[in-house]
Amino acid sequence: MSELKYALDTFYFLVSGALVMWMAAGFAMLEAGLVRSKNTTEILTKNVALFAIACTMYLLFGYAIMYGSPEGGWLPSFGALLGTENGVDKVNAGEASHSLYSDFFFQVVFVATAMSIVSGAVAERMKLTAFLIFCVVLTGFIYPVEGYWKWGEGFLHAMGFQDFAGSAIVHMAGASAALAGVILLGPRKGKYDAKGNAKGIPGANLPLATLGTFILWLGWFGFNGGSQLALSNVDDANAVSRIFVNTNAAAAGGVIAVFLYTKILFKKADLTLILNGALAGLVAITAEPLTPTPAIATLIGAVGGIIASVSVSLLDKLKIDDPVGAISVHGTVGIFGVLAVPLTNHGDGVSFVTQLIGLLVIFAWVFVASFVTWFIIKAVMGLRVTEEEEYVGLDKVDCGLEAYPEFARVTSTNGN
Questions:
Q1: Region 353-369: what's the mean pLDDT?
Q2: Rounded to an integer, what distance in angstroms lies between the CA atom of residue 369 and that of residue 225?
Q3: pLDDT over 80 (residue 128)
Q4: Given a cut of 80, is residue 377 above it in pLDDT?
Q5: b/e for 135-169, b at 16 or more Cβ within 10 A?
């Protein structure tokens, strides 16, 4: 029976990790749909490259930092590589309940998700090389440190901070890193008029953005469901089932709430805000997808969707230019999701105070470390392309290849 349990839980980790990996495609399609056509190839390149870098850096350093550091501490150990199969399961005191490699695979796709959040927020004006250099630092060091504090059983875990699948550890962290970069980068040319009013810059392909949202919605079942970490007994199977239902309910609540919000406020159904409403609902429920009832999960998702929509408008007023709304969806709503945990989870140590402390610690670490990293990159090589390159589009500047070449002029062999 123990071998069967080991096999089932290992298989569940692998399948859940594959679903989360599929979210990389969701982010790529969402961002490709919400940027202008002249920047599509570049942002797709970013998404493929960041996933590869995240996987490699987490393999080399991140996993060892996050899960090989002392329990209850704040200063991680700085090891490398995966280690051995022994001791992967701290709960069972060395008797592993699943394969170490399945655990690594499940965790590595989470760090790639955090970095994908940054990609959309800095789109259309950042140098590709600068972005990828930052990716090395975030995925190999910044993210693993704050992940260790909770999921590696560091001091936030000991304090009672709860974040089931990463509303703060993954989503707010990615948004915090993005915010630091956007502040140093500045807005896109033409985003704000002389009076400081925001002007809409429509995305190039809303069908792609919609496809990306549905892919992310699907992948989130692995994101939240897999975070139960087991499936091989009745209690875990029931818990996973409830997590799936609540995750889906929260996304649906976000869509409905934002649809009504935009129809009442603008007299139109704003698709881009509605798509972000679905994602906001998912982010909001991620901190605690098990303890709410499905009705409460729907309400949490609905509130998350409204918060994201309001946050997008507020950030525009502050001239924080985020082409895809990532900072609002993953950051502002991530904060809400973590603070909502005590409403339904009444376990030992869970309180608004501990949740707030955890949020402040994670935000402070990720924002400051990211700001310093972005600042160094800016000083050494610059973050932003030139005004002319931004006008031409990053597809030609960074990739030399247009995503939509149907309007390109073709010259025949005879020169005509």
A1: 98
A2: 30
A3: yes
A4: yes
A5: bbbbbbbbbbbbbbbbbbbbbbbebbbbbbbbbbb
Strand partners, 192: 198
**pLDDT value, residue 408:** 52
88 class by beta-carbon count within 10 Å (0-12 exposed, 13-18 middle, 19+ buried): buried
Cβ within 8 Å of residue 407, ≥6 positions away: none
195, 319 in Cβ contact below 8 A? no
**Contact at 8 Å (CB) between 60 and 81?**
yes
pTM above threshold 0.85:
yes
pLDDT at 83: 59
Question: Coil, strand, or helix at residue 135?
Answer: helix
Strand (E) positions, 154-207? none
Rounded CA-CA distance 274/265 in Å is: 13
Q: How many CB atoms lie within 10 A of CB 209?
A: 22
3-state class (DSSP) for residue 307: helix
Other Cβ atoms less than 10 A from the Cβ of 375: the count is: 14
Residue 196: count of CB within 10 angstroms of its CB: 10
Residue 72 pLDDT greater than 70, yes or no: yes
DSSP letter string over 341-354?
Answer: HHHH---TT--HHH
Spatial separation of the C-alpha atoms in residues 362 and 351, rounded to whole Å: 17
